[in-house]
Amino acid sequence: MGLPAQSSAAIIQLIQSHVTQVENTVRWRWSPGDVAVWDNRATQHRVVHDFGDQPRRLHRVTIAGDIPVGVDGRTSTVLSGDAGSYSPLAA
């Protein structure tokens, strides 16, 4: 079931080349007190390490609601509890 690895990689590369085009991205210019929120079900996040020695704080939150469903009809895996138990956290 599914595509061969080479075909899958080619499709992922095609999608990645589209979503990373400048016209499909947002670059936030931070100011004190700013908060950014996005839905990982429909968005990619990529940090650009251009903030020098300025602190960067990230809080990952999952909102209760419908369980996302992939294009193949399978529902996502539901995780519960402290994200530190299944997501690596930077010190």
UniProtKB/TrEMBL annotation:
Q: Which controlled-vocabulary keywords does the entry list?
A: Dioxygenase, Iron, Metal-binding, Oxidoreductase
Q: Per its UniProt record, what Gene3D superfamilies does this chain match?
A: Clavaminate synthase-like (3.60.130.10)
Molecular functions (GO terms): dioxygenase activity
| Pfam families (alphabetical) | TauD
Which superkingdom, per the lineage? Bacteria
Q: Which cofactors does it use? A: Fe(2+)
Start and end of every TauD/TfdA-like domain?
A: 2-62
Instruction: Tell me its family.
Output: Belongs to the TfdA dioxygenase family.
Protein name (Swiss-Prot/TrEMBL): Alpha-ketoglutarate-dependent taurine dioxygenase
- Species of origin reads Nonomuraea roseoviolacea subsp. carminata
